[in-house]
Amino acid sequence: xxxxxxxxxxxxxxxxxxxxxxxxxxxxxxxxxxxxxxxxxxxxxxxxxxxxxxxxxxxxxxxxxxxx
Length: 68
What we know:
The protein contains one helix and three strands, in the order E-H-E-E. By secondary structure, the protein is mainly beta. It has a three-stranded antiparallel β-sheet with strand order 1-2-3. The longest helix has 4 residues. It is elongated.
């Protein structure tokens, strides 16, 4: 599923380290599904945008999904 490039001994099957870490883009509107806008506060967190990040590992959830 993932080519992590990690040559260390295998860890738990629900955790995959990504080495070297790689740059990613994260769509916060998919991660934090907030409702409709109630009011606009220009200096607060914007959870509807896409931001850069660094992927260091993949981990399985209790529902069988993978999150990075």
